[in-house]
Amino acid sequence: MAYPIIVDTSSFQSDSLAFFNTLKSYGVSGAIVKLSEGVKYTSPKAANQIANAYKAFGVVAAYHFWHGASNEAAYFLDKVKKMGLDKTTWLAIDVEAADLPSNCTSGINRFLSYLYSNGITICLSMDQLHGSTMAVFIRRNLYHMLNFGWRPMGLPSRG
To answer: What region, left, alpha or beta, does residue 32 occupy, with left being phi > 0 and alpha being psi -120 to 50 degrees?
Structure first.
């Protein structure tokens, strides 16, 4: 059974259409773009990466690299809107920063609650992934989510 390959891009990768077309030629099906981090950083390449990933794959997702501050969800949602991403776009919170406490469940829940209160559908279990547009991936666990059928908008279901 083949699973879709989704690449994680940030300002360390190219934002060119040629880059995403090359990835597509290697069998990549979509991209999740680092949009923001903390409350002061927006990836300088995010706009081009989002536009060019969408041109190459017909699908794109965005994520926020979380440091635990209470206002990060508002910052992320503001950037999502400024990029023109709608409520059908898959969003994720990346929880792996070295400065996080060992137990950050309550902070993650506050982040998700803020997005939920602003109309973002939240994935609460692996069974709900297909009907949601927000997911949490912890310690680069996106691969695990893909194996359970995670699909950003526009990706075909696994066969």
So the answer is: beta
